[in-house]
Write a structure and sequence with these properties.
Elements: H1 2-19, H2 27-37, H3 39-45, H4 51-59, E1 66-69, H5 73-78, H6 81-91, E2 98-102, H7 107-116, E3 122-126, H8 133-140, E4 148-152, H9 162-168, E5 174-178, H10 193-198, E6 206-208, H11 216-225, E7 231-233, H12 244-249, E8 255-257, H13 274-300
Parallel strand pairs: 1-2, 2-3, 3-4, 4-5, 5-6, 6-7, 7-8
Length: about 300
Amino acid sequence: MPSRGIGGRARRRRARRRRDWAEGLPLDALLAILHRLGHVGVLMAADRVCRSWRRAARDEPSLWRRITMRCDQWMAAKLNRRGVACAAVRRSAGQCEAFCGEYVGNDGFLVYLSEQAPCLKSLRLISCYGVTDEGVTVAVKEFPLLEELEVSLCDNVVAGLYKDAGDVCPQLKIFRLNKARFDETEWRRSKDNVALATANMHGLRSLQLFANSLTNKGLEAILDNCPHLESLDIRHCFNVNMNEALRAKCGRIKTLRLSDDTTNDYEYNAQMQSFLFWSWEIHAMMSSRRRSLNSYYNGNHGYDCSFPRLSR
């Protein structure tokens, strides 16, 4: 019986040694491993590997200085997205300088982020459907050091965030506001409110407005009021009609993407303005059907039953 107890203790000691295989690793090497694992992976699995990993994941704020939480929609559905995002920010111990979240967070999380990360310089929100105009507007006011702001594919953010960004974030250099697709309902009622507000961000170096409704007037305002602009991406902004004056103003832009340029290097999935193509296909089909019916009735029944011509 005693020998059995001694053997059990020995096995437990060997098991502990196996679990603590990273004990002798330098901290820099361990942090490099965790960085490769990714912040979502660290939160979900690193604590269970060994005590060294657990200490590094929980007690090293430098690991959480630049937080990236990118995942697909399927994985996001399996996570407590707000809880995971808050845990990541909490582990930064107030040192978080950059946060990039996809399918994570809502307005409540943005309030938490503004309280826990006063030194934030980069905020990227991608497909965060729980984030609204009000939430982003309130949060941006709490980040005076912000240099990069992106809101992409967030369907509930449509009008609020850019109104105050130029005033409350004087160091803003990168701004991205991207929609999934060009809104066909705005084709006849052009809107330059985003562009005119963006023109107030005088320190911008890089601007991306994908599938925005800005017109020549809005683009001209941006070019006139953002003298340091080096990169401009207005792909799928189909209300812009480039003329000689605008092309001359764009001559100083080093990287220029216009409305009809290819989207092969676009980071997200680009959707075409399907309604417009669909409407023209219906127009062609109905025109053909109208001609056939006119020919049938006029040729076989001896009376005129012409259908009115479709107007464009």
